[in-house]
Amino acid sequence: MKHFAVNNQETNRIANDAILSPRAMREIYLKGFEMVVKEANPWTVMSSYNKINGVYTSESYDLLTTILRKEWGYQGMVVTDWFGGRDAVGQVQAGNDLLMPGKIRQQDSIRQALKTGKLSMADVDRNVRRVLELILKTPRFKGYPYSEQPDLKAHASVTREAAAEGMILLKNDGKTLPLAADVRDIAVFGNTSYQFIAGGTGSGDVEEAYSVSLEEGLTGAGFILDKGLKQHYLDYIRAEEAKIDWKKYNHVTPPRIVECTLDEGLIRRKAEETDMAMITIGRNAGEYSDRKVKDDFELCADEREMLEKVTRIFHQEVSFWLLLFACETSAQSPSSAGDQALVFIVVQFHRELPRQLKSGDEAVDGSVFGNAVLGIDDLEYQPAFGFLQHLNQSFVAVLYFLPGYRKLRRSVEAVI
């Protein structure tokens, strides 16, 4: 369990001094650690680099012994972060059992303190005992056979569960999640949708055997992602990554690639061809430096532009399809099946959709409406199924008002 505690920044992390009240520390910064100690009983705790109210955490008896051990009942070993702290003697006295990676200067200062009586042998024996107790518990000491064949499936299952439980849903207006059963085709926008972030930088990353990208996850769940949009993003990202000198970013966060420029015509086509849009915005981070507020914690101008375009077009400027399902009947012989015929007319409009479709208005395919007015004022942006409008004595029209051609197509198939 690390880093204990109040380790709130990477910038100047070795010299940073966190100044806070006992109440703030206990109720905000220590509460999560307390829960882990009492519920999970970890074998090791790593002290952090920083100071708390002027004292390095690795040298704080109050933090590592009074609170961690006496109050919370912790029985395991405490280890420093690499080269953490300044006073090796103070670390031993505080209950920091193992100093990493261990320096000759630290050994010399501990020996000297034992000679002068500044440090008691009881403190050293206590720390050594805790290190040995950890070794005795390890599978390696108990003869567990070393293997290059870890159970990756079991590990992946635990990782998947932890990731799901760790997510926070900030907003879910209109019960967008879980996705409706009729959502199948998705237009996925945003560089991060295809430039997946599997880990941070420095010690914030691991060499994973594999990772499941957003695209793979959605596809595995049965959704169909727009292939043209995917290729558009992959070509752009590949070209931008070729411009980066990756050797400069071995342990630090690489620069963010500006969002791919999207033509409104492209977005409109995707709105017509898919059931919904999904937008991903991501940030990477890691060791040695903190993220900035402007254009980092806050959205960048290119991200705002993408959000504005995609949401506006998908919510308001999608192409609306009107399906006129006309059933011709015979006033003289309504029961005569031979006098009936089915006629399908699909008419496409965009934002310029007229408020009224009047007698004689011509459709895109050249068809002409009947001798009546179809009022759609109350139907704009609404999925209105089964809306009946009597055109005249010989025709009945059913108006389907749907965003998205594919959803319309499935509706037509259902009607047929």
Written description of the protein model:
- This protein is an alpha/beta fold.
- The chain is built from 13 helices and 14 strands.
- It has helices spanning 22-29, 31-40, 61-71, 88-94, 104-116, 121-137, 152-166, 214-220, 227-241, 264-273, 293-297, 301-315, 405-415; strands at residues 17-18, 44-46, 51-52, 55-56, 77-79, 185-189, 224-225, 276-279, 320-328, 341-349, 356-357, 374-375, 387-392, 395-403.
- A 4-stranded antiparallel beta sheet has the order 10-9-14-13. It has a 3-stranded mixed beta sheet with strand order 1-3-4, with no helix packed on it.
- Helix 10 packs across helix 12.
- The two termini are 61 Å apart.
- The relative contact order is 0.07.
